[in-house]
Structures are given as structure tokens and as C-alpha cells.
Predict the structure of (S)-3-amino-2-methylpropionate transaminase.
Amino acid sequence: MTKNSNDYQALRETYVARGVGNGNLHVADYAKGATITDIEGNDFIDFAGAIGTLNVGHSHPEITAHLKNQLDKFIHPGFNVIMYESYLKLAEKLAHITPGDFAKKTVLLNSGAEAVENAVKIARKYTGRQSVVSFVRGFHGRTNLTMSMTSKVRPYKLGFGPFAPEVYQAPYPNVAEKADNVSQEDFEAQAIARLEDFFIETVDPEEVACVVMEPVQGEGGFIIPPKSFVQAVKKICEAHGIIFVADEIQTGFARTGKLFAIEHFDVEPDLMTVSKSLAAGFPLSGVVGKAEIVDSANPGEIGGTYAGNPLACEAALKVIEIIEQEQLNEKAETIGQAIEDKLNALSATHNFIQHTRRLGAMVAFEVIDPQTGKPDKALTANIVKVANEQGLLLLSAGIKGNVIRFLTPLVITDEELTRGFDILTAALNEVTSTQQV
Ligand SMILES: Cc1ncc(COP(=O)(O)O)c(C=O)c1O
């Protein structure tokens, strides 16, 4: 007898850790582009892209064909045991495509958190300093150090202490919080002044090994900082010998209309962490940056058993080719604009849609109770739940859980986008009518 998604719920309940979240309770069968089909034949339009890992889309034919060939050669010789070409070529490629006209080196790893951990290890070794600065509302992972660098208490931190020492969180401006009577110029000047105060009140810059900054905050709610602020952070780093680490794990590989989001701010990071869309769904991450800094770690001090798996490296090399061939930077801008236009139209009839913002195809809006002006986490959760039930994979975000974010594959077709928005509109209508009853 063929099974349906419900048949698997008992397995999920009985054998999978409760702490693992599931946004959608269906079971995937196959996926292509921006559509996932479940085992009952239901289609889901994918506005989540496996949390931003699928800029080139599901099962890109070139990647699938290439990896089938690779599988016949070998699976994992282990780079520490014997080298293989794809790791070397990928390190070379990353050195060339990341910003900064200086010699660069790369260490490849598995997950985003692991990349951030290693960036901190490298920065500490290079500077001989211990302190790490991240930002309020930031997200860097679920290991002890990266959880300590992360801001959102529930669900990421509550009950999981003690946290790593010498981690400090600096303020990161959110333009949605700018009062109407404050000019943009004053808002930016105040944000920089607060940052300077942070280095007087909280930690001395001469003790800081690195500042780890998301050029656009991802889990924090797609917060796009002013260019002047990012440049001020870099300037402080330069003045005090602090390593500037751009965490591009969610923002990288064409998501924002440039290969890396930090390029929008005309800042060249010393180190960059990459993962997610780097390898089209394979677990792969890396720290790329100034050769002199990366080389402060001695042989054997960084890396890992599965780090830089050859299938993942081959996928990454193809991803970089596809981004160029299919002009995904340009597509990100077109898709982002189309999403923004649709959201602006929807906000005319659904007044809880506020603060729509985007950089390329990194688009989000906030759900605000129009009566109180406060973030509406419950309504956000309801919209996401109904959308997921009705055939749209949709994610929330934000420190207050009231942001809906769009991380669609950049190969999404007009038809998929329209279908996705039809489902979203139906979900918005349904939650609004339930609320009014
Ligand atoms: C900016 C950023 N850094 C780090 C991470 C952690 O990555 P991973 O979940 O692969 O450990 C994420 C994941 O969402 C992220 O968005």
C-alpha cells in the first residue's frame, strides 16, 4: 500500500528529537527548480530554499549530472589523508571571487556554525587576543561559541548556558525603528556614536580579536544596515588591529544581487564565512580570507574529518559557474523587485504588512498589529502555518518572530512566483477572516 505523509508522523513523533523543528508536515518525494512534490503528489512552491541554500534551485540538471559522474570516481578520500582536485580548485576560485585584491587562502568545513567557529579560532591565533564581538539580533549557529554570539534567547539559548566567555554583542541599527522626526543622516550618526560607545563601555577594542558581522542580518529579520555603519565598523577594526569577519552564510552567492552582500557596502573583509548556497544543498562551508591571517593556524589545528567533501566541492564549483551562466545576480534583482511589488500591492488590503525591505532577492516584511503598532508574532506564525498547509513553503524570522522572509531559489519561474503569491494571498485572507470572527 502506498504511504502518505500522515503515515510518517508516528515515526517522526516516536524517533526524531522533539527539539528539531519542522515547518511543514508533508514528506518530500522529489524537487525541481522552486517546486517540491510530496509523496502524495502535492506540489509545494518553495519560498524557503532550504533556508537559503538553494539559490541555483533544487536538482539543477548540470549539478545532478556532474555529481553522478563524480560518485563513480570516489566519495571521500579525506583531504587530510590524500588531496583531490575539487578542494584545490574551489579554494582557488573562492580566492578570486571574494572581494579584496590580496592573496587569500581557504579552509573548507561542513556547516555554517563550524565556519564561524573557525573564523574566530583563526582570528584569535593571528591577533593573540581573546574577545569576540558579534551584533545584537545576529545569528551565527547552534554550537556553544556560535550560540553565544547569537542574540535571540528563545529558542536558541534558553536553558543552554553556560555560554562562551569573551563574547560581546554590539548594537546594529534597524531603520524600521527610526522615529519619523529623526532624519536618516541623524539616525546613522547616532548608530555610529552608539557603536563607538560600545567600545568604551563594554570591551576595549585593543582586546578584540574579531568583529563578526552579517552584512544583512538573516535570522534577525533581514535587517539591512546603513552603508555608513558597516564602513564605520570596518574603520574601527582597522584602527585597532581587529579582524573584520563578514558572515555571508545566508547572504552570499547572488542572493542580494551581488555575489556577496558586503560588496554593496564597499568594504573588503579580512575573513569571510561562506556556506548554504555555496554547494546547492550539500553540507559545505568555508573561511576565506587574507592568506597571512588564515595561515596563522598551524597544520592540523583547523579542518575536520568530512570537511571539504569532494561531492560538495564539485557541486560548489558548478554553482559558481551557474551563477555566472544564468546571470543569477541580475535575476536576484528582478525577482526581488517582483516580490516587493506584490507585497506593496498586498499591503494596501492587508494593513498588518509593514516595513517591507529588500536587498536583491533578500526580501522581508513585518507583521505589525495596526491597532497597537506592535509586532504580531502569533499572526505571523498563523500565516506561515496556513501557507505551509496550502502548498507554499514559507519561513518566518526576526528577533520578535514577526518577520516573513523570502528565500526563493533564484531560478524561480514567473509561474511559480505567481502561484506562490496566490497561495500567500489566500493564507493572508484566511488568517484575517479568522481573526475577525
Ligand atoms: C548568517 C548565518 N551564520 C551562521 C549560520 C549557521 O549555519 P548552520 O546552520 O549551517 O550551522 C546561519 C544559519 O542560518 C546563518 O544564517
Summary: The chain has a mean pLDDT of 97.
